[in-house]
């Protein structure tokens, strides 16, 4: 995870908090109890903690984890500056039962395409673990890339992201391996003015599509509630929507 440690220094420039996504997450969870202050949420793959902190400011009780130590360190520093209380952990997704007991949370959210860093088998298992640590009628919010669009249109990457200060850019290429059914995700963080690569990485992603995600959630004991095609809550369209956002409730 050396790339993510290097990338963490520029993370907030590349991925600033999206107000519409925050609103969609809030709308998913806010009615689980009478007051937000009584609702316990878990942020899976929290990065530098932008969404955890924003939701804590709204009153939610937050716990959050990420596998990268530098991300967690930055998240804790930002939390102190924001004067909210969040328990941050360095943890891998497959180890949540080592840290959290059954029925510990009212809601779980996993955004930023984090879920597909797991293999197909581990995605299936993780969703069952997530169901176990949720209370009855608890909800899960998942946001990944719409891989149906990527595969059907034979796209070789995602649009380049330029930082808010325009000092760096983040290039994202895809190389689909049909026989293995995996995508090599090749990323480069580049100094925009010197055109110098600051860090680069290549990892495997599993191209999880809508029908398969629905199947795994149902198998884990969830009922699908909403499927969106953007943080604005737009209708999901297989060949047009860039993200796939799905919410489900534990039965």
UniProtKB/TrEMBL annotation:
GO terms for molecular function: methyltransferase activity. Keywords: Methyltransferase, Transferase. It comes from the Bacteria. Residues 42-138 form the Methyltransferase domain. SUPFAM superfamilies: S-adenosyl-L-methionine-dependent methyltransferases. InterPro entries: Methyltransf_25 (IPR041698), SAM-dependent_MTases_sf (IPR029063). GO terms for biological process: methylation. Pfam families: Methyltransf_25 (PF13649). Gene3D superfamilies: S-adenosyl-L-methionine-dependent methyltransferases, Vaccinia Virus protein VP39. PANTHER family: TRANS-ACONITATE 2-METHYLTRANSFERASE, TRANS-ACONITATE 2-METHYLTRANSFERASE-RELATED. This is Methyltransferase domain-containing protein. It comes from Halanaerobium congolense. The lineage of its organism: Bacteria, Bacillati, Bacillota, Clostridia, Halanaerobiales.
């Amino acid at each position: 995870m050396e790339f993510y440690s290097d990338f963490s220094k520029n993370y907030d420039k590349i991925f600033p908090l999206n107000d519409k996504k925050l609103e969609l997450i809030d709308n998913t969870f806010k009615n689980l109890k009478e007051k937000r202050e009584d609702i316990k949420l878990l942020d899976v793959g929290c990065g530098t903690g932008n969404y955890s902190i924003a939701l804590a400011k709204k009153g939610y009780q937050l716990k959050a984890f990420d596998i990268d130590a530098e991300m967690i360190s930055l998240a804790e520093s930002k939390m102190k500056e924001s004067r909210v209380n969040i328990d941050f952990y360095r943890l891998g997704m497959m180890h949540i039962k080592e840290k959290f007991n059954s029925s510990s949370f009212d809601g779980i959210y996993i955004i930023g395409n984090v879920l597909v860093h797991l293999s197909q088998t581990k995605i299936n298992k993780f969703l069952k673990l997530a169901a176990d640590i949720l209370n009855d009628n608890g909800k899960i919010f998942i946001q990944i890339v719409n891989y149906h669009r990527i595969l059907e249109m034979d796209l070789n990457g995602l649009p380049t992201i330029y930082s808010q200060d325009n000092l760096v850019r983040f290039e994202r290429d895809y190389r689909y391996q049909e026989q293995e059914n995996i995508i090599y995700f090749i990323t480069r963080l580049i100094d925009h003015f010197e055109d110098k690569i600051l860090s680069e990485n290549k990892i495997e992603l599993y191209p999880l599509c809508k029908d398969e995600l629905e199947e795994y959630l149902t198998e884990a004991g969830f009922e699908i509630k909403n499927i969106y095609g953007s943080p604005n809550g737009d209708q999901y369209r297989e060949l047009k929507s860039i993200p796939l956002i799905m919410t489900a409730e534990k039965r």
